[in-house]
Write a structure and sequence with these properties.
This protein is an alpha/beta fold. It contains 19 helices and 21 strands. Strands 1, 4, 5, 12, 13, 14 and 15 form a seven-stranded mixed beta sheet that branches. The chain has a seven-stranded mixed beta sheet with strand order 10-9-8-11-16-21-20. A three-stranded antiparallel beta sheet has the order 18-17-19, with helices on one face.
């Protein structure tokens, strides 16, 4: 029965008909749901897929839905099945769908593409032959049967192993040798380590090329999935004893790392849950989106004034950084024009849905609080095709009979669909640098224990001395940390992060001869043009 329901849902996702977003404060859509009916004198669930794709100007939230219990993804962790008769923020619905320990996508259904043997790039004729080789290795996973297929997806780490991991290792080692060796340990934290391939390739490279650095290496993996954490242990701990596993969510990290460290996040933040907001086009007031799930498992959405602290803080930060909301400038400039516009026939009263990266903001705050001397190396998608309607909207997709099928809504059966977002890297850089420049809360400062190393100075007011003769501060440098000098011995502060395209980063750190094809083409530079790095 589940297979028939999955088939119906996927076929509906693949159709050319698009889900129309209602113009009122309430919308609804349903997927993968069941309704009771009598058959042969026995109760039985009927497979059905319902959609509300009718444009409506009179929809109001169902009073019954308004009275549902408000829950979060954390509240649902111990449930064995998807919830009924509840409501939650959009970010909690997405997080529950992707990461729930019993029915989440990454916990039960996702499989990371892994090549048993690395590709022999110099022997491959051209890009067409490269793509055929990758397709053939996908085919080795077998043919899907009825119902949801194997949820297989690949990453550059797996596709270009070991050369991708070695490029990242070369980047981090060069920074470490310049700034901290031999006075500090080489401390690395990786979140979302997948199969453990990136950690393996990086540590193999460091052990082979820089044995003195390897002796001082401490590699920590923070992994939310128990299955993937066990896989990483099997692959890494016997080969590299310097690896330590932490099977927990980064959003629940509560241990302070006082030492300088490097924080690696490859293809992770695209699956961070987002909130959905829309603006009242008459007042430009933002409204937060909530998802309701009724007794049949049907989904609906409705909007209320923003009350969530995380959404509020994100919007406040965006205003401070002068990142404009996605509303037409004429609507922002003229209240009279807004009144005229919303009174036009068939005009919507809300803006298009916008998906805002609230969980990403939580990550940046975690780094600031618990890893005060970290350096972030992050990479992910900067743009995506086949997104659902909306601003900064995600791709929602599944695999069915060996074909990837995109959908037109995020209101899909929990656990069977990947939901991933693009990232505006320029906005991310601004948010990140602003958060790092903020002072820690007084309670955190009082708990800090002084840490003395050969790179520390006994004269504390270095930051003040830096500006004694001049108030000039380089725009590409962070404010100096009191008592900590740079690699030059001067209190000039760390270099700010910069955004690089995938090709720019790889041209700087990768051994491109290893991935060059016989035709001279290089898939390491050409296959991820919608990916960027922050470092």
């Amino acid at each position: 029965m589940l297979r028939r329901a999955a088939k119906a849902a996927v076929q509906r996702c693949a159709s050319t008909a698009k889900l129309v977003v209602t113009a009122s404060f309430a919308t609804s859509a349903s997927r993968f749901s069941a309704r009771n009916k009598k058959e042969d004198n026995a109760d039985r669930l009927e497979d059905r897929v319902n959609y509300n794709d009718k444009l409506s100007f009179s929809d109001v939230p169902d009073p019954e839905h308004m009275n549902y219990k408000r829950v979060t993804a954390n509240d649902l962790e111990h449930e064995r099945h998807p919830p009924r008769k509840v409501k939650m923020l959009v970010r909690d619905f997405i997080e529950d769908s992707l990461y729930h320990p019993h029915y989440g996508y990454f916990s039960k259904h996702a499989t990371i593409f892994t090549a048993v043997e690395p590709l022999d790039f110099p022997s491959i004729k051209n890009m067409s032959a490269f793509e055929a080789e990758v397709a053939e290795r996908y085919a080795d996973y077998g043919v899907d049967g009825e119902g949801p297929g194997k949820q297989i997806w690949h990453t550059p780490t797996e596709l270009f192993k070991p050369w991708f991991g070695r490029a990242l290792a070369r980047c981090l080692v060069s920074e470490y040798l310049l700034k901290y060796f031999p006075y500090e340990d080489f401390v690395i934290y990786e979140i979302g380590a997948g199969n453990g391939t990136l950690a393996l390739d990086m540590l193999d490279y460091i052990r082979e090329e820089y044995p003195d650095v390897y002796e001082r290496t401490r590699y920590n993996i923070i992994e939310i999935s128990e299955n993937l954490a066990n896989l990483q242990r099997q692959k890494l701990e016997s080969v590299h004893p310097c690896v330590t596993m932490h099977n927990k969510s980064i959003f629940r990290w509560d241990t302070r790392e006082p030492a300088p460290c490097y924080f690696v996040a490859m293809e992770v933040i695209d699956n961070f849950a987002h909130d959905m907001i829309r603006y009242d086009l008459r007042t430009l007031e933002p409204y937060q989106g909530l998802v309701t799930i009724d007794k049949n498992g049907d989904f609906s959405t409705y909007y209320t004034k923003v009350t969530d602290p995380l959404i509020s803080s994100f919007l406040e930060l965006r205003r401070y950084l002068n990142h404009p909301p996605p509303v037409h400038r004429l609507l922002k400039l003229s209240p009279a024009f807004r009144t005229f516009y919303v009174n036009l026939p068939f005009a919507p009263n809300l803006s298009l849905p916008e998906f805002i990266p609230t969980r990403l903001l939580t990550l940046l705050r975690t780094l600031r609080r618990h890893f005060p001397r970290h350096r972030l190396l992050l990479s992910d998608f900067s743009s995506l095709p086949d997104t659902i309607p909306g601003i900064n909207a995600p791709v929602v997709q599944t695999r069915y009979q060996n074909t990837t099928v995109p959908c037109t809504t995020f209101l899909v059966k929990q656990g069977y669909f990947d939901i991933f977002f693009p990232t505006n890297f320029e906005n991310l850089r601004d948010m990140y640098e602003h958060i790092l420049a903020q002072p820690l809360p007084l309670a955190d400062l009082e708990q800090q224990v002084p840490r003395f190393t050969p790179l520390s100075t006994v004269a504390s007011p270095l930051a003040e001395g830096n500006s004694f003769f001049s108030s000039y501060h380089p725009k590409n440098r962070r404010p100096p940390v009191d008592g900590i000098t740079s690699s030059s011995g001067l209190p000039v502060g760390e270099r700010k992060s910069a955004v690089y395209s995938h090709a720019e980063f790889m041209k700087t750190y990768a051994d491109l001869n290893k991935t060059r094809l016989r035709s001279g083409e290089n898939p390491l530079l050409e296959t991820y043009q919608n990916v960027k790095f922050l470092f």
